[in-house]
Amino acid sequence: FDFDELEKQILSLDNFDEIAPKIIEASIPTLKKNVISECQKHRDTGSMVGSIKETKSKKGKSGWFSIVRPTGTDAKGVRNMEKLAHAEYGTSKQSPTPILSVAVDKSAKPIAEIMQEVYNREVEK
User: Fold this and answer.
1) Which of the residues 12, 59, 96, 122 could staple to 90 if both were Cys, CB 3.0 to 4.6 A apart?
2) How sure is the predictor about 2, in pLDDT bands with cuts at 50, 70 and 90?
3) Beta strand 68-70 with 52-54: parallel, antiparallel or unpaired?
4) How many Cα neighbours within 13 Å face the side chain of 77?
C-alpha cells in the first residue's frame, strides 16, 4: 500500500475540505479500538480506559485532524491523560511502556485501507 500516493490523490481533490472529514471520521473507530485495547493491558482501576474519547474532525493550521485520548480524572484527581503519558514515556521511577505508539502502529494499515475505500467511494460519486 502506497500511503504517500493516496495522500497526493486526496490533497489534489477540488473538494478536499468536504472529503477529508469523512475519511477521518471513518478511520477513528479503528484507532480508538486499538488505543482502548492497548490501554486494557495496563489497566489498574479502569478509569483511564473508560475515559478514552475521540473528537469530531476539525480543520487546523496543518490540515484536518481528530484526537483519540483519555479525558478527565480518576477518583483521586489524577488526570487520565497524565497516566497515559507516564506509561508511554516513563518517569524517573518508571520505565516506558508504549501504549499509543503500539496502537498507532497496529492501526496504520487498516486505517490506510479505510482511507482508500472512502476516497474511492467519494471520488466515484
Assistant:
1) 96
2) confident
3) antiparallel
4) 0
